[in-house]
């Protein structure tokens, strides 16, 4: 099967932001024997399957709706949901008041929907017939990064923006003499690899206390890069299974736990976590399950 990952509904900055999201999916599909390509301009005709990541601005929503109406079964669509649909800071952002409504307009057009968060109940009421499935991340051999050659001169890396909640934790770590690098944006691949390779720990800290889910893409990238991940233990959903491959202290113990880990062998910690992740999970297997019932065309 040919999977056309279509990104024409996104901006150039989004391309950077989605690296960690899409790389495991593309690599897992290839390991499962499928062909994958990316396109910024054209949707591919059947039997190819077009995979679109949620973010449907008004003009694009109208264009896609009309294009699907004109082509019917000759246009196969899969939708990838990456956000918590109940997170008002994202789905009710006043700068993007159309986001949730447009997503709900597009969903019925999809042949299938994958969500990276286990909020499938929300999708099932809008995409009937079992077409919506939770896609869990897993190990993918081709994503394993070579051992870094640069010195480990960054204690902690927060790959993302800071914000008030994260900043409080960062400042506590710095007060203990720990170096913390915050990217504040998505980094191009060469910079990302450099900084992750130099970090002893990757931190997965939620944006604010209202967030319900940990970041599967950040955890997955950290594991494949060979850097130990420390994640706040707050997620009680199925995503919490990823805590088995991280150090996962409770939020009120997070700073103490990170400080203690930095006194030990973080390279051994990372290697043990990656070996466990490889032995117990498979991105290929997860994708084969997600693709069950989708014909090759």
Give an account of the 3D structure.
The protein has 297 residues and is an alpha/beta fold. It has two domains: 2-138 and 282-291, 3-Layer(aba) Sandwich (Rossmann fold), CATH 3.40.50; 141-280, Glycogen Phosphorylase B (Rossmann fold, 3-Layer(aba) Sandwich). 39% of the residues lie in helices and 15% in strands. The protein contains twelve helices and ten strands. It has helices at 12-17, 19-31, 58-71, 88-91, 99-106, 120-124, 163-175, 189-198, 216-225, 254-261, 266-280, 283-291; strands spanning 2-6, 35-39, 49-53, 76-81, 112-115, 132-134, 154-158, 180-182, 199-204, 228-231. It has a six-stranded parallel β-sheet. Strands 8-7-9-10 form a four-stranded parallel β-sheet. Helix 3 links the parallel strand 3 and strand 4. Helix 2 crosses helix 12 (283-291) and helix 3 (58-71) runs parallel beside helix 5. The longest helix is centred in the C-terminal third of the chain and has 15 residues, at 266-280. It is globular, with a radius of gyration of 20 Å. The model has no long low-confidence stretch (mean pLDDT 94).
């Amino acid at each position: 099967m040919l999977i056309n990952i279509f990104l024409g509904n996104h901006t150039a900055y989004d391309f950077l932001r989605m690296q960690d999201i899409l790389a495991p999916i593309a690599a897992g599909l290839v390991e499962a024997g499928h062909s994958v390509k990316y396109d910024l301009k054209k949707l591919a005709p059947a039997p190819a399957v077009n995979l679109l990541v949620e973010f449907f601005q008004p003009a694009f929503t109208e264009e896609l709706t009309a294009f699907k109406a004109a082509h019917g079964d000759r246009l196969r669509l899969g939708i990838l949901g990456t956000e918590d649909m109940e997170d008002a800071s994202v789905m009710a952002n006043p700068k993007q008041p159309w986001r949730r409504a447009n997503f709900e307009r597009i969903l019925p057009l999809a042949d299938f929907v994958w969500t990276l968060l286990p909020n499938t109940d929300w999708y099932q009421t809008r995409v009937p017939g079992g077409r919506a499935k939770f896609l869990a991340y897993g190990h993918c051999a081709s994503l394993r990064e070579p051992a870094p050659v640069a010195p480990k001169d960054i204690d902690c890396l927060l790959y993302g923006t800071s914000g008030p909640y994260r900043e409080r934790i960062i400042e506590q770590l710095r007060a203990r003499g720990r170096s913390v690098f915050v990217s504040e944006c998505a980094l191009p691949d060469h910079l990302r690899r450099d900084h992750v390779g130099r970090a002893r720990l990757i931190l997965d800290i939620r944006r604010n206390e209202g967030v319900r889910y940990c970041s599967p893409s950040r955890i997955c990238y950290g594991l494949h890069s060979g850097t130990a991940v420390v994640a706040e233990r707050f997620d009680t959903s199925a995503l919490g299974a990823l805590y088995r491959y991280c150090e996962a202290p409770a939020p009120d113990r997070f700073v103490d736990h990170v400080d203690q880990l930095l006194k030990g062998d973080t390279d051994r910690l990372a290697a043990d976590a990656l070996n466990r992740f490889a032995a117990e999970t498979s991105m290929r297997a997860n994708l084969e399950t997600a693709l069950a019932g989708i014909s090759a065309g």
